[in-house]
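Progress note, sequence design subtask.
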């Protein structure tokens, strides 16, 4: 086999294909993903088929009711997100070098905030400060704290119950965790709410240890059963739940569209409070200034 055939460029899908897969995962519709990316649906379908041939696995199940990820597709989507996030960070750094900008802002955010709230805030910041180069690092809440304490980020956003040692914080929004399942799961047909004790002993599709979502759930229930599946992004957890792998607990922000389209069903739970605060955080004694202060004010507007 030649070196060209073994290079990553021939074995890894291009960024456009990965962005399309992420859009399908988020929207549950190939047509919707095509419109969002400004391409035709036949072109989007062809790109997905080409990616499936390249990887040798089926990624998307298509039906008149929409498109959903296969089990393999959910896993590939999780990996794809890391590649796209790395490309976005590369682009932000390259742009800063190209324009020789003096102003820069390094933002670290937990996954739910990075996926569902931060893009709107950054668009508003761009309008207010068009000359600010912004880089985004997304990870779980524990990773955000580490980045701030090691001076690798200027401002962070987390979802956990407590503020990590060495950081100051302010509440910027409120969120609620909800139990969701695919419509075919037995819990979707329950007439009575789940008891907290039943939820605690049920294997769930969960985020990894260190995530704010898992911390809130573990604390609220006084412990969790061994995960059914453990994944490192909200999108991957959601895709697994939509695919019928089992129940999951996710931010209400993350599943609004899936609940509206009935790709997921919310399951009421008695005897447990799953509300949480979303916080901006920064190193103790170093109140945000400049672009970081401006971004913080936009989150509270």
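Output:
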């Amino acid at each position: 086999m030649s070196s060209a055939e073994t290079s990553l460029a021939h074995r890894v899908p291009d960024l456009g294909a990965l962005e399309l897969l992420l859009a399908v995962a988020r929207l549950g519709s190939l047509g919707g993903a095509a419109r969002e990316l400004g391409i035709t649906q036949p072109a989007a379908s062809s790109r997905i088929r080409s990616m499936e041939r390249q990887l040798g696995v089926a990624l998307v199940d298509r039906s008149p009711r929409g498109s959903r990820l296969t089990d393999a597709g959910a896993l590939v989507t999780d990996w794809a997100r890391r590649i796209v996030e790395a490309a976005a960070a590369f682009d932000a750094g390259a742009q800063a070098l190209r324009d020789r900008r003096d102003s820069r802002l390094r933002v670290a955010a937990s996954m739910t905030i990075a996926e569902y709230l931060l893009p709107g805030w950054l668009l508003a910041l761009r309008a207010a400060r068009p000359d600010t180069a912004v880089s985004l690092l997304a990870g779980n809440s524990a990773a955000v704290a580490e980045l701030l304490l090691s001076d690798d980020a200027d401002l962070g956003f987390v979802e956990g119950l407590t503020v990590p040692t060495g950081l100051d914080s302010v509440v910027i929004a409120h969120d609620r965790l909800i139990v969701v399942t695919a419509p075919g799961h037995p819990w979707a047909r329950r007439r009575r709410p789940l008891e907290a004790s039943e939820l605690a002993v049920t294997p769930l599709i969960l985020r990894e240890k260190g995530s704010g979502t898992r911390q809130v759930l573990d604390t609220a229930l006084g412990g969790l059963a061994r995960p059914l599946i453990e994944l490192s992004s909200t999108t991957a957890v959601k895709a697994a739940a939509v695919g019928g792998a089992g129940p999951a607990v996710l931010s209400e922000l993350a599943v609004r569209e899936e609940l509206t389209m009935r790709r997921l069903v919310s399951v009421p739970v008695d005897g447990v409070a799953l509300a949480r605060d979303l916080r901006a955080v920064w190193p103790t004694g170093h109140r945000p200034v400049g672009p970081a202060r401006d971004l913080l004010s936009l989150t509270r507007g």
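The chain has a mean pLDDT of 87. Work on this subtask will continue into the next period as scheduled.
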